[in-house]
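Methods — Computational structure assignment.
A single polypeptide chain was analysed. Its primary sequence is given first, followed by the predicted tertiary structure written as structure tokens.
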Amino acid sequence: MEILDEIKFDRQGLVPAIIQDHISQQVLMLGYMDREALEKTITTGQTHFFSRSRGRLWKKGESSGHIQEVKEIYFDCDQDTLLIKVDQKVAACHQGYRSCFYRKLERDSLKVCQEKVFDEKKVYEKK
């Protein structure tokens, strides 16, 4: 895809992707995409990322079923960050919350400001 030549991937070949709910506008997560992940995201309509910790491509929801259906993809002005608006199935956070940003700083501590929407131990238990 020629349009991907416009993206400014970093030295590791990655670009940050902010994932946002297309209806509520809630920021759900931040992930990193390499060229392959971005191509798969565009062609399949579901988000794919490059896992820095696992060192491999992964599809969001591949183990939980909590996929993200892509509605819109935006490039920022420097073309080094993506904003992807999605229809999130169940939750984005692997810890059971709708958004990975479920804690907020209050004075000198973090306060949980969302309810869990699923039990992560049941979803991710080893089979």
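Note: The first strand starts at residue 15 and ends at 21.
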